[in-house]
Amino acid sequence: MADERIPVTVLTGYLGSGKTTLLNRILTENHGQRIAVIENEFGEVGIDQALVVNADEEIFEMNNGCICCTVRGDIIRILGKLEKRRDRFDRILIETTGLADPGPVAQTFFVDEDLKARFRIDGIITLVDAKHVDLHLSDSREVKEQIAFADVLLLNKCDLVDGARLDRLEARIRPMNRLAQIHRTTRGELPLSRVLDVGGFELSRALTVKPDFLVPERPFEWAGAYQLEPGTYQLLLADGPDPEMNLVVRPLAAPSEVALEEAIAQVEQAFSADGCERAPGDRWSTGPELQTLSLPPGEKTFSLEVKNAGAYGLYTQHLPEEFQLRLVGPDGAVRLPQVAKAYAAQHVHDESVSSVSFEAEGEIDPERINTWMGRLLQERGTDLFRMKGILRIAGRPGRTVFQAVHMLLDVQEDREAPAPALNQLVLIGRNLDPELLERGFAACLSSS
Amino acid sequence: MPFVKLTPLVEHQTRDYARVVAWSNDGRWAAVGDAAGVVTILDGQSLEVVRVLQAHQAPVTALAFRPGGAQLASGGEDARVVIHGLPTEATIRINDVGAWVEGLAWSPSGDCLAYAAGRTLGALSTNGELLARLSEPSTVLAIAATPVGARLAATCYGRVRLYTLPKLVLDVELPLIGSQLSLVFSPDGKILATGCQDCSVHFWRLPSKKPSVMSGYAQKPVALSFDRRGQWLATGGGEVVTCWSFKKKGPEGTTPLLLEGHAGPIRSLAFNPTRDLLASGDEAGVVCWWQPGEDGRPLALTPARAELSGLAWRPDGQVLLTADAAGRVAAYPAP
Predict the structure, then answer these.
(1) Could you report the per-residue pLDDT of B251-267, keeping only the tens digit for each?
(2) Nearest of A33, A139, A145, A141 to residue A92 by alpha carbon
């Protein structure tokens, strides 16, 4: 049976990320449809045929005493009135403010029965200003949450950023949300079918597109390949996010990406051992060993001896730009890598957002999954943004599909569907402990 | 009472979703406001359309006849409060109030008109002059005038307050965590009830401010109605009409009377002002009549049509006016 409910698309992103431009595109290109826009920010929104409602965002706590259980009272009120018209709207667009938390918007559609009956949230589209988001990504809780909640992520204003930086940005963002579709756009230009009717909250479509865990996680976030002459080099660092950093500077077969990648296995091994502690002013020679640099406040200098001319790979735990890391040659000139690559960080920073995913064959014990999931949502609900899963529950035919936004769980049993070969679960949240979660999930298997 | 077959006396069609219905206190007029911004005025006796006013440029959200006088106030999603003169066509005053009008209420004496628009509460004179205005911390979702005296109940997230009219001076504070969607006073003004987002009904006895809560509703119990003696509070919040008895010591600890017969969520409730009769309307457009306390079964049923959006009895209790989402307005005679 077709879902007759009116689809709601949420556009979120910092001020200047391009929400209004995309919104106006949607309105212009869908001019046969009746579209209502709810906006909380003042922008040049709208064309004549669209109804634009400007309202203050009103976040109301639900009565259950849980701080993460909040809804958008203004959306309940406005949509409740908008549907009291003879001519239905074909679509609703909600444009949030730059600092908005997408959680309450999504939860509103889980919680209000009247809204649930008439509307369905189709997707959260997050726009990111590819040129400036770097400035906010580390310290803005809102930016991280907007990325974490997204079904579709648009790295917008790509015309202002070079490819390598975009690669680095995507490598930073992808581990935060492995479920979202990521697109690189300029002025929000992309086929609208990528942002409308995406079915981001449609249970039957949960995990039909596998989460993107293709971007591998490494213990280092960056690697650069250099061609160096013998001599004493200096590593200069300014203040950064960590009082310590691990790095390796080792010989490579060539100053190329291939050579950089070939050495990774050994570099990872080096990173898994304890490093040699280095204080500012220390000097050491290039080699395969891990160096742990102590980084007190202020400008720091370390010395590096390069004995032989050749290609070298510098593998750093953090992105060089986080410390304004520079490699300065014996001639005093800054050396730039011939090739550089960013990697998804395996060890996340404090307060950081990540995605974890589990797969397991077999059947899930219904009582154990109930207990584990219930406790997880209860205890970690505030830190869990989105969860999706497909399970084969022992004693139940077909498959069980579910999704959650914070503590709110939506479950559907599909008895007619074939039982899934693999149980899958994907979580996007803050401060996730993948091992602990994996153990908890694995313990729910009937066979364990 | 035997089962009554409901046949309308009169039927009219408005252009769009009929949002609100209201009767003047003397039963002389009835009005229907629709989503096309039109206010249709009916003669209270003949029930014929006597006037069609393009009162607003967006859906009508509220209607209130001035007690004892020939004015009708209307509010809309065009952020306007309009005071119309009756029987002439004169528009006395248009006020831009800055946001969608959530409610209108005249003081019982008819001296002033209170409105809620966005976060603003305002009081206007009969000529539309602004007498007082204040800002609440969030959108005012419902207002109701006390049936006696000159006070206004108004709710925004986290509280219900009583203000004096016309100056809107705070008189009583009733804190309540949550979002309140509707407000109704008992006929003697001693009980104030509110239907809440969290699927509960809260009420306070006044002036003691003693609070009570009835929870466990399947859906939001927005529709509320007291009977003429203040002995029953009928509530919606699902397919069952839940009636709380205020006879003796009140409904606390008692089992409510459940009136079952609707197959869809209750959207409207209205007790007859002169007899023991309750009208209810649901999402499918079915209207039922009941006599709470006598029988648990409906006395009358209409067929399903479109969502029942408005129900109001003429003050003499002889006619029930109904309005639905398809714009059908029908008047039924009481048995």
Answers:
(1) 998 999 999 999 999 99
(2) A33
- Residue A50 has a pLDDT of 82
Cβ contact B198:A63 at 8 Å: yes
CA distance, residue B77 to nearest chain A CA (Å):
9
According to DSSP, residue A364 is labeled B
Six token digits for residue A248: 């390796």
Question: Which segment of A94-98, A311-315, B36-40 scores lowest on mean pLDDT?
Answer: A94-98
Identity of the residue in A58, A86, A87 whose CB atom sits nearest the CB atom of B157: A58
pLDDT band at A163 (very low <50, low <70, confident <90, very high): confident
Angle at B84 between CA B83 and CA B85, to 5 degrees: 125
Partners of A52 in the β-ladder: A37
**Paired strand residues for B183:** B194
Give me Rg for the CA atoms of chain A.
Answer: 25
CA of B132 vs chain A CAs: smallest distance (Å):
23
What pLDDT, on a 0 to 100 scale, did the predictor assign at position A325? 94
Give the whole-angstrom CA distance, residue A302 versus residue A101.
42
Please tell me the predicted confidence (pLDDT) of residue A350. Answer: 45
Three-point CA angle A176, A177, A178, nearest 5°: 120
Strands (E), A34-160: 35-39, 51-54, 59-61, 70-72, 91-95, 119-129, 152-156
Tell me if chain B has a CB within 8 Å of the CB of A63.
yes
Give B135-175 as a 3 state SS string: ECCCCCCEEEECCCCCEEEEEECCEEEEEECCCCCEEEEEE
Tell me what ipTM this predicted complex has.
Answer: 0.94
Residue of chain B nearest A57, judged by CA positions? B138
CA dist., res. A209 & res. A199, Å (int): 11
Banded model confidence at residue A43, pLDDT cuts 50, 70, 90:
low
Q: Which residues of A touch B323 (CB under 8 A)?
A: none
Using the Cβ of A80 and the Cβ atoms of chain B, whether some distance falls under 8 Å is answered with no
Take residue B199 and report the two structure tokens written for it: 């699927």
A351 close to B (CB below 8 A): no
Instruction: State pLDDT tens for residues A247-272.
Output: 999 999 999 999 999 999 999 999 98
Q: Give CA–CA dist A9/A23, Å, rounded.
A: 10
Put simply, the answer to whether A81 touches B309 (Cβ < 8 Å) is: no
Cβ contact (<8 Å) for B141 and A77? yes
Position A344 pLDDT exceeds 90: no
Within A112-214, residue ranges assigned H as helices are: 113-118, 133-137, 141-149, 163-173
> Which two tokens mark B193?
């009830």
Residue bearing the bigger pLDDT, A14 or A135 = A14
Which residues fall within 8 angstroms of residue B309, CB to CB, at 6 or more apart?
Answer: A84, B17, B18, B19, B20, B267, B268, B281, B323, B324, B325
Burial of A186 (0-12, 13-18, 19+ CB in 10 A): middle
Q: SS3 of A141, please?
A: helix
Tokens of A381: 């609900």
Q: C-alpha dihedral over A214, A218, A223, A229, to 10 degrees?
A: -130
Nearest to A63 among B119, B141, B177 (CB): B177
